[in-house]
Amino acid sequence: MNMIPTVSVRHNRHDGNVAPHVTLGPSYIDRQPAPLAPRTVAQILLDRDAALAEREALEASRADLVLNGSAEDLLALDTRIALAKIKQDQAETQHAVAISAEAEARAEAEAEQVRRRALRKAGMKASAEVAKLADQYLAMATALADLGPAPRTRAGDRRSQPEPAGRR
Predict the structure, then answer these.
(1) Would you tell me which of 51, 111, 124, 155 could form a disulfide with 88, CB atoms 3.0–4.6 Å apart?
(2) Are the C-beta atoms of 74 and 59 separated by less than 8 Å?
(3) Range with lowest mean pLDDT among 81-85, 105-109, 145-149, 154-158
(4) Which of 109, 102, 105, 129 is nearest to 117 (CA)?
């Protein structure tokens, strides 16, 4: 069997260089099965209903097989009925777990929304407090400026300084 070589670029942990790596066949990552998506409650219910319908159909045919069938056929039918019952039990258990997981996720999402609303409310309150303090600072700075002497200018700029009263 002729295989096409696969070339991939790998990082060497020893010296830190990147080098091509040639292999025959699929890489290790390609051989790994892809993770399955989680099943929804509706999918689990469909599986449970299918297992229930299969079990009921097999149990309905059991009476006829007891009369006309062999022991091996009856044993095979009983095995299939038991397998259908196990599938039904699995689906019911998965359904219960999925319902509780959805309720837990919903509760977590609601708690996160409550936390975010509280943070936003605290932020808005702090912002209002900052605005209030800024207004107070402006009023106090204006009042303080009115009480004190006029601001001094640089020594070289004599045009803006008032002249002493005795000189002229």
Answers:
(1) 51
(2) no
(3) 154-158
(4) 109
